[in-house]
Amino acid sequence: AGFNLLMDRPIDAISINDIVAAADVAKGSFFNHFDDKDDFATAIASDVRSEIEEQIQMVLDDVKDPLLRLAGGMKFVTEFALKERKRTMAMLHSLSRVTWLDHPFNHGIKADIEACIDAGLLRKEAKNFGVLFWLGICHVVMTNIVEQRMKRPAAAEQLKEMLILGLSGLGVDEQTSNKVGQQLSEAL
């Protein structure tokens, strides 16, 4: 029931009374499982994000190039937003603590950013804030796809442009950014 509420509005716009009414349970039942509505929203977001992270790891398991892994993650979340619009919005409406660099969900992105830096592909500023920069771009891509009700061709063009801008912003040279953006958008 809470998942359905989160598809339409952020957790700050939902009361515990809204959640228990939608679930047709007593308020005490809610508190048997969650400390507060933020805890509830975090649980929902964690379920969706955990699924996304597991699938990204499976898809990118054989990809050794850290730049392609990083870009491949954005491609995957683009596909997820196209296929799972409601689950995407529920996750985005309930995000909590996702900007913590040591959050378990950020380990893959952090490792890929560090590998790109070690390979000399990214600018030094990416070491401290590259994860946040990349998370922000991925969240914007997902939100825009869902809110604009994009179809695959428009999403592919957005993916290409965001990959080019994002990779360039991290310090990747223009030729490589364009090549990766083109390659992954065509594969969408």
Quick synopsis:
The chain has 188 residues and is an all-alpha fold. The chain has helices at residues 2-8, 16-23, 27-33, 37-60, 66-83, 85-93, 107-118, 126-147, 152-170, 174-187.
- The assembly state of the depicted protein chains is single chain
Shape: elongated
**End-to-end Cα distance:** 32 Å
Which band does the percent of strand residues land in? under 5%
Structural class: mainly alpha
Mean pLDDT: 90
Total strands: the figure is: 0
Series of H and E elements: HHHHHHHHHH
Portion in helices: over 70%
Note the main attributes of this structure.
188 residues, mainly alpha, 10 helices
Q: What would you note in describing this structure?
A:
- There is one protein chain.
- The chain has helices spanning 2-8, 16-23, 27-33, 37-60, 66-83, 85-93, 107-118, 126-147, 152-170, 174-187.
- The mean pLDDT is 90.
- It has 188 residues and is mainly α.
- The chain has ten helices and no strands.
- The two termini are 32 Å apart.
